[in-house]
Amino acid sequence: MKMDFFLFDMNKIDIAKTDLNLLKVFEALYGEGSASLAATRLALTQSAVSTALKRLRDVDGDPLFQRTGRGLAPTLLAQQLKPVVSEVLHKIRQSLAMVSPSGRSLDLAISSGGCKKWVEPMSTRRGELRLCGGS
Fold first, then answer.
1. Is the pTM of this model over 0.70?
2. How far is residue 24's CA from residue 40's CA, in Å, rounded to a whole number?
3. Exposure pattern of 87-111 as b/e (b: 16+ CB <10 Å)?
């Protein structure tokens, strides 16, 4: 993917001093078009998302999103950044999915009543537990 269409010089951005979580905020703001909806999506406060947006604006030197009667509309730079940010986050998510939790499992022997009361609700909420039926 060609990157020469950006309006700012990416070589001037010090990645070591940049909070990469801002990319998730950018993605949520772009997708939701609202700081409050992005906050809900990210399980943050609206104030935290607004602060992150200010930090994003400082990094990029661009407003990135303009207030409209319908929420936040992306600027031209935000529209250009969107596919790149999405690709980066996708690659990060793929990398994290490749990390196997093998060796980090815990086997529990629990009654069916305890399983129904404690384990099943956690497994549906978290999506991280694997239930194995026993005899």
1. no
2. 13
3. eeeeeeeeeeeeeeeeeeeeeeeee
DSSP string, 33-46: SSHHHHHHHHT--H
What are 8's two structure tokens? 């700012």
* Whole-angstrom distance, CA of residue 28 vs CA of residue 37: 8
- CATH placement of domain 10-98: 1.10.10.10
DSSP 68: E
Bridge partners for 125 per DSSP: none
- In angstroms, the CA 121 to CA 72 distance is 37
- Residues 100-110 have pLDDT tens digits of 555 555 556 66
